[in-house]
Amino acid sequence: MGENGAIKKIIKASLEGMLDAELTEHLGYEKYSPAGKNTGNSRNGKTHKTLKNDYGEIELTVPRDRNGSFEPVIVKKYERTLGPIEDKIISMYAKGMTTRDIQSHVQEFYGLDISATLVSQITDKIIDLAKQWHNRPLESVYPIVFFDAIHYQRRKGN
């Protein structure tokens, strides 16, 4: 939970995967695909962005395209705070909703037009991250501390 905690790392990796999936959908071809040659628009590096959320600041690398026409939906340009949309997509997918259901819910509640293909690409990237996290090596010991308290009412002066 701290400065370099696991949750921040998972959020960072998830968001960067989602942004890569968005750029792939925007360009119409996968990274390193020969289909992208001479299309007039291609990947053009990444920019750095700092987002603030409940867990502190998260440093992201946001992909960009050569023409500058890429407008991310997940983390909009000039946005500095992280909203609940990513968590909602992950949560809805984890609860068994289809990509079309997620697409319609995001449209209804947030007013964002995202395609079912984008939702599918986002969840595919997140599934890989979840599998990596699930298969990570565990520590041999995890310390746990329980706190409990008993409150007695008493009167002063008696």
Descriptive report:
With 158 residues, this protein is an alpha+beta fold. It has one domain (6-134). The chain has 4 helices and 2 strands. It has a two-stranded antiparallel sheet. Helix 1 packs antiparallel against helix 4. The termini are far apart. 18% of the residues are buried.
Key traits:
4 helices, 2 strands, single chain, alpha+beta, two-stranded antiparallel ribbon, 158 residues, 13% strand
Proportion of beta-strand residues: 5-15%
Could you tell me the mean pLDDT? 80
Uncertain segments: none
Oligomer: single chain
User: What does the main sheet amount to?
Assistant: 2 strands, antiparallel
Radius of gyration: 21 Å
| Total count of helical runs of at least 4 residues | 4
Report the order of strands and helices.
Answer: HEEHHH
Helix content: 25-40%
Question: Biggest sheet: strands side by side, in what order?
Answer: 1-2
Shape: elongated
Q: Based on helices, strands and strand pairing, what is the structural class?
A: alpha+beta
| Record field, number of beta strands | 2
Distance between the termini: 47 Å
What is the count of distinct domains?
1
